[in-house]
Amino acid sequence: IGELIPPGARFPLEMARDTDAGSNSLLTYQLDSNPSFSLALMESHDGSKQPELVLETALDREKQSSFELVLTAVDGGDPARSGTVEIRVNVTDANDNPPVFSKSVYEARVAENLPEGSLVLRVQATDADTGSNGRVSYSFSNVPGAISALFSVDSESGELRTAGALDFEEKSKYSFGLAARDGGGLVSHCKVQIDVTDENDNPPEISILTLSSPVPEDEPVGTVVALLNVDDSDSGENGQVSCELSGEAPLSIVASPGGSYKVLVLAKALDREEAAFHELVLRAMDGGDPARTGTARIRVTVVDANDNAPVFSQAEYTVRVPEDVSVGSTLVTVTATDADEGLYGQVKYS
User: Fold this and answer.
1) Once rounded to an integer, what is the mean pLDDT over residues 277-295?
2) Cα(first)–Cα(last) distance of the chain, in Å?
3) Does residue 247 contact residue 278 with C-beta atoms inside 8 Å?
4) Residues 264 and 214 in one domain
């Protein structure tokens, strides 16, 4: 009997036979008590009574899939004789139950850059029906192409796996729907929420926004030489960057209040006569484990200022000449040098 057959439906049963004659063969029927079924007798044209099983209440195969009944036939003799037959009622399934997910929302946290095919989570839906009505298949539920390009769902197991590379810096959260469909076409839905966690996969990047070069050697200490932007697209400690200078350049780093910008300033006076240029390497290191680094090379040229006076080769020249030396005779040649360059280093005598 199908589980959706309405109450009041009748099912004819086989009639009993009694080989006696007269009242000894007159038969009546009895059905053991069961709230779901009753017995009705339909009298035929020859006076015999046809037993019929009457459905009294709605059936639900998922609650009770079968019934065991006993039908008794009693003759009219004295003493009466009876015979029994067992009636087994099997309730056949109807697709009256949709699939049911074990959760309404499935959540997972996965690291970015997982290899393709990595397991993210597994959804599970059960269906109380049997046969094809209870077989469940899984699929995406109206998701954009960007989701199906990054994830795949196994229609039989419900396993959700990566189909492309996840990138925390591009997107850190995904939310979409999955559907479970049984063989009869009934569908249910669940929601999937995936948080992508950051990996230290990006090195710090250093951008030179401004650079003052050449720099006059007489610039005061504290003069800004360069403005730098240091950025790491990772998050948390992976994106926290510290900087240091290598080399013996008379420069130091000053961090801006926002933290992204670094200012190179003169830490001590320049002297072109000691060094006409300075080459240094700015090294930025993030807080990941292992840490990643980025570098930038900076060359600062020092231009001359007139900060050096001419210097004679001797502080005093002593010359002995005869008194009759002729006019125009060279008495002595003095020399002076200037450490500056260009016009600043050209010496005139008087």
Assistant:
1) 90
2) 132
3) yes
4) yes
Q: Is residue 27, in this structure, part of any structural domain at all?
A: yes
**Length of the chain as a residue count:** 350
Return the bridge partners of 177, or none: 191
- Side-chain half-sphere of 127: how many Cα atoms within 13 Å? 26
Q: What is the pTM of this model?
A: 0.66
| Domain match, 283 and 226 both | yes
**How far are the Cα atoms of 117, 210, 241, 253, 277 from residue 227, in angstroms, in the given order?**
45, 5, 16, 10, 18
Alpha-carbon span 40 to 51, nearest angstrom: 6
User: Do both 340 and 280 map to the same domain?
Assistant: no
Q: Does a structural domain hold residue 3?
A: no
CA atoms within 13 A on the CB side of 70: 7
Residues 225/229/232/235 CA torsion (nearest 10 deg): 110
pLDDT in tens, 88-115: 999 999 999 999 999 999 999 999 989 9
| Inside any domain, residue 4 | no
Q: Give residue 276's domain range.
A: 205-303
Q: Report the number of distinct structural domains present in the chain.
A: 4
Q: Give, in degrees to the nearest 5, the angle at Cα 339 between 333 and 340.
A: 120
Residue 274: CATH number of its domain? 2.60.40.60
128-149 exposure pattern, b = at least 16 Cβ within 10 A, e = fewer = bbeeebbebbbebbebeeebee
- Which of 90, 112, 142 terminates a domain? The answer is 90
Q: What is the DSSP string of 106-142?
A: EEEEEETTPPTT-EEEE--EE-SS-GGGG-EEEEE-S
- Alpha-carbon distance 133 to 144, whole Å? 29
Do 210 and 190 lie in a common domain?
Answer: no
DSSP string, 190-218: EEEEEEEEP-S----EEEEEEE--SEETT
Residue 45: inside a domain: yes
Largest interatomic CA distance in the chain? 190
Q: What is the pLDDT of residues 65-83, one digit of tens each?
A: 999 999 999 998 989 999 9
